[in-house]
Specification:
Layout (H helix, E strand, L loop, with lengths): L2 E5 L3 E2 L6 H19 L3 E9 L3 H9 L4 H18 L6 E4 L3 H16 L3 E11 L4 E3 L17 E10 L5 H10 L4 E2 L1 H12 L5 E2 L1 E2 L7 E2 L2 E6 L1 H6 L1 H4 L7 H7 L3 E6 L3 H15 L6 E5 L2 E3 L2 E2 L17 H8 L1 H10 L7 E2 L2 H31 L2 E2 L8 H17 L3 H22 L8 H20 L5 H10 L11 H4 L9 E2 L13
Parallel strand pairs: 1-3, 1-13, 2-3, 3-4, 8-14, 13-14, 15-17
Antiparallel strand pairs: 5-6, 5-7, 7-9, 10-12, 11-12, 15-16, 18-19
Bound molecules: 5'-O-[(L-methionyl)-sulphamoyl]adenosine (MSP).
Length: about 500
Amino acid sequence: MPRFYLTTPIYYVTDAPHVGTAYSTINCDAIARWHRLAGDEVKFLTGTDEHGQKVADAAAAHGVEPIEWADRTSSRFVDAWAELDVQYDDFLRTSEPRHTQTVQAFLTKVYENGYIYKGTYEGLYCVSCEDYYTAGELIDGLCPIHRRPVIEMAEENWFFKLSAFEDRLLEWYDKEPGAVAPPTKRNEALGFIKGGLNDISITRSSLRWGIEVPWDTSQVFYVWYDALINYLTAIGYGRDDAEVDTWWPVSHHLLGKEIIRFHCVWWPAMCMAAGIDPPAHVFVHGWLLAGGQKLGKTMADGSAVNVTDIAPSTLVADFGVDAVRYHLLREVPLGADGEFSLEGMVARYNADLANNLGNLISRVATVVGSKCGGIGPAPDPSSSLRTAARDALEGAAEGWTTFAPQRALEATWRLIGAANAALEAAEPWRQPPGAEVDAVLGDALEVLRIVSVLISPAMPSTARAIWGRLGLNGAPTDRPVAAAAAWGQYPGGLVVERGEPLFPRRRD
Ligand code: MSP
């Protein structure tokens, strides 16, 4: 059975979950669900990134210990993901003892391999990024991402010999052309490497809220250095070698473009330094924007761009969880930047969910009620929709397995469109009951059965609801997708339920 290990970035506990962070998580969740549906053995990891100066400062500002602050905010992520129907296999907090153990084991290995040395660091530091900049990288003397003042820092630290990995990284990029994707982001990462790599200071002496350096307890590891290793903590590095061999390197990391350097330069180099393979696949997505600005970005006055009025829980209450998931998967393809707006969400909801999918369900159920006494007929084994269904399965598989949920959903919606068009052409509501009407409706019911299988990664509760309305037992995810989505399995003779509209049209 193929194995598939998928990770989100771990989220900072300084911010509440917002639509931008939900974008990373829901895309991962749906991709993981597809792989489970395909019959793969899946591990899907998410969690929270809890150490570092930023968290220590936020806790101090609220008069609490960092761990108390982390407990509070981490649970907000747990709640938000539950509300968004995210089905992770593990939620990792970097404050957990298992993480300390793995980080210490991993970095001790790097140290023993000769890639960590002592030096003095002087630089310009942005607390919000938890990252250093050179003077040339600043914009108007401010952090280029947050537009906030940076601070001058000088301290004696331990350094990672990143510079020693330039050639090996370039070789890796050359040998594994698909490892960093999409190609535009791969080129960007390659640009960093070709521009020359400096060693990085990986410890802090001025901070206590972090993981202690085992060979120098006056220091803790720099938060990014502990954070990246979370991907190995969850699979038992330093604690369970068999588990590591099971899940590494069949690993896929999905993350946003602002953290490309950490994941596509530092992380593979760190793996090489510890003597393990780099991750199999790093996919870099773009940003959801509000009025052209990164949604959720912290501004100079401390406010965040457009997050409160479109908090995930507000959207779920307003649109329903599956409509929110659908929008985040369908609107902005992974890899690109795109605007997120309520108007855009309403427009897509009406077009794709109310008019297309919702209409198909309610039309079919209504006509089965009026022409077939509410009992669904069986499909025609050689229906012309059979080819459309096969194309949808192929397109969905292609989209989901190449980190293109948008294409997977487009392929699925082409099948919905084909079924609606077939109904409009045949107009069974105008015909007398009989074999012809039965054939048209049986085909439409079979399309709905297949659609409920194909949409299940994106819209799990809608998938189950449609399945139930068709009178089917079990769930659309009970069998591997190749078998479940093959044409001709709606048995006929089942009671089809009309029910309330799943996606009532919105007027706003
Ligand atoms: N803690 C680090 C990641 C460490 S991983 C070893 C971090 N956290 S974060 O909370 O700031 O961001 C986490 C993820 O949310 C990133 O992938 C980021 O791109 C994503 N997003 C945050 N705002 C976003 C948008 N407006 N649009 C799309 N994704 C966004 O970075």
